[in-house]
Amino acid sequence: MTPNAASSSGPSRRSFLTSTAVATAAVAVGTPLLAACGGGGQEGRKEGTTSGKEAAKILPAYVASSVVTPDIPAKSGSAAGFTRAIPTAELKTSVPKTLGSGGKLTVMSPFWGTPPKGDNPYYTAMNKAVGVDVTWQNQDGVTYDQKLGAVLASSEVPDVMVVPGWNLMGRIPSAINAKFADLGPYLSGDKVKDYPNLAAVPTEAWQRGIFGGQLRGIPMPAPYVTDIAPLYRKDLFAKKGYTVPGSPDEFLAWAKEATDAKSKLWACDDMKWTAFNIFGVLSGGDKALWWNLEGGKLVNRIETEQFLEALEWTRKLYAAGVVHPDAVQGKAGGDAGNRFTAGEVLVYNQNISDWWGKTAEQRTQNADFEMEAFDYFGPDGGDPTLWAVQPANIFTFVSKKASEQQIKDFLALCNFCAAPYGTKEFMLTAYGVEGTDYTFEKGLPVKTQQGVNEVNGAYDYTGNPAPYIAYPDLPEVTKGMVEWQQRMGAFTKKSSFFGLTVTEPARWSNLADDFEQLEDDVVRGRKKISDVQQAVSDWRSRGGDGLRDWYRKLLDDNGSAD
């Protein structure tokens, strides 16, 4: 059963960590978020973005929530932290009256696992509380991009659709502009105050909800501090007398000392993501973040010395034999965490949410299990240069064919689901019906088997509060995660297209698709750094320089979002 745990670090702020499949989908093997979408202010425009004065006319006013005070306030781009469970008697109310009209909405959403029956107690209770009769069309999350494409190409689009950022590719961005409603008339400026929980969503997340020049998407807010952390076995470090390395050279020297292949112990798993952060490589999230204005010139991450240096350092780890052999064979992603908990590797990198996920999992078997994230260092062992990730990457839309009342019901649903931690609305959305979906054990809400099966992967997507981390079952992990984000946030910069949702011209949108495979080939010794340099040269001649000019004009015409 899953104890009280909630975080906005991944696809679902509430159930992300209860599903390994969801976690894998979010960060699987470094899969970048492909062509994001936006527009320049004209209905149906397929390319560009909206920022500056034009965006200011569209964005909702920001009114911070005062319903609940976090134990650890957000700082430097971090999430806020809640370290204790709130007893039922102390829960606040953030939606004092039912806003829904009793109308019907059909919602299509990705789901990992077996979807519950539509008339289950959780769905029934949510529909009654919101005042909207929601019917869920849960689709297989693994093939969701295919389903999205097929549905958006048809004439029959559900009332509401969830679109993860990693599915924004091909013709899906232009279909979003054509088939989903403008929410500006209901949310722009002070209008959002009719929905107080949505008014508390940070402006930078709303900026990401501008598609085709209009505010179309309800965003899932996320911290802008990098979500990839170098995680290490603190318990085994202490047992062996190791100290955390403080530079790339120290890490390599330590890794050689720590690796004992005969005993099936390796220092680390694949560390490419960590290397990118150590060497200050521009964010590897959506491709707009690959660009940054440096010294008056717009530069792509693949053109930088930092990019090559990160690959070379990672290559040295593989060449030294300190990387687990399964990673050498390319078996990364979720298996890396299993190798870590099995004690076969001492360090791996993954979404920081694994800090809680693995700790909660292992503490039931090994009370001494302890892991942490170590702080990033720079190439010379000094302060790192980190780059912000996008502040929202999952969006929910309502059909252009929806009536005005359906749109208001949709917003009522989103406002209810965006209730902050510590409220009655949050507990219903996150845990379901008390006594049926969860019970209290030692002061912590714990899901029953029915709750695990049913309270998962639905209302998670239709509205979320400002980023937060809440693991009261492991308060020290909550504190550690938030404080790590705060320390790393102090060294985090925002690149030129941070916070913007950009649609690249179709003729150039797939230019860099082969680079991830090339990166993996280089670090594993199958290709050379010179092959990367040649690939960059080819990229420029095949359209990279043209794409640079396009992005530069976009920046000149619209400005940045920050």
Short description:
This protein is 36% helix and 15% strand. By secondary structure, it is of the alpha/beta class. This is Aldouronate transport system substrate-binding protein.
Helical run tally: 21
The rough form would be described as: globular
The protein's oligomeric status is single chain
Average residue pLDDT:
90
Low-confidence blocks of residues: 1-45
- Report on the biggest sheet: 5 strands, mixed
Q: How much strand content do the residues show? A: 5-15%
Rg over alpha carbons = 23 Å
Written description of the protein model:
The protein contains 21 helices and 20 strands. It is α/β, with parallel strands linked by helices. The two termini are about 40 Å apart. It comes from Streptomyces albogriseolus. This is Aldouronate transport system substrate-binding protein.
